[in-house]
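Q: I'm a student working through a structural biology exercise. My instructor gave each of us a protein and asked us to get a predicted structure, then write a short paragraph describing it. Mine is Cytochrome c family protein. I'm not confident about reading structure output yet, so if you can add a plain explanation after the tokens, that would really help. Here is the sequence I was given:
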Amino acid sequence: MFFRLLPVVVGLLAANAHAAGNIETGRAVFDKKCASCHKIGPAARGTFGPHLNAIVGRQAGATTDYRYSEAMKTSKVVWTPETLRAFIHAPNKVVPGNKMRFWGIGDEGEITDLLAFLQTVR
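A: Happy to help. First, here is the predicted structure for Cytochrome c family protein. I'll explain a few features afterward.
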């Protein structure tokens, strides 16, 4: 019986580890795909895109140092891991008419890792 359940348990553990994401890999994804427009850290300010400090739990279009599109300001989106995942995957499907010039990330593993990293950014 044990040997029958072992593959199931191993599979569940692997899936759970992937669901949590890898923070270091997420940092690399951020550096490669986000950092040219979005800043993080104590001195971060909105430049070409809004800063992403404490993005999880924040209302979309809420920072005062960036000029958001009307679509983003009126979207009523709150950035949860789920809404961020959807937005990172397809920005214009979540907030049609936003001004982010990014096609999205199609790799769910990269998104999971990026979200793990973004949740550490205060």
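A: Here are two points you could use in your paragraph. Residues 5-18 have pLDDT under 50 and may be disordered. The domain at 2-118 is CATH 1.10.760.10 (Cytochrome Bc1 Complex; Chain D, domain 2). It's a good idea to check both against the output above yourself.
Q: Great, thank you!
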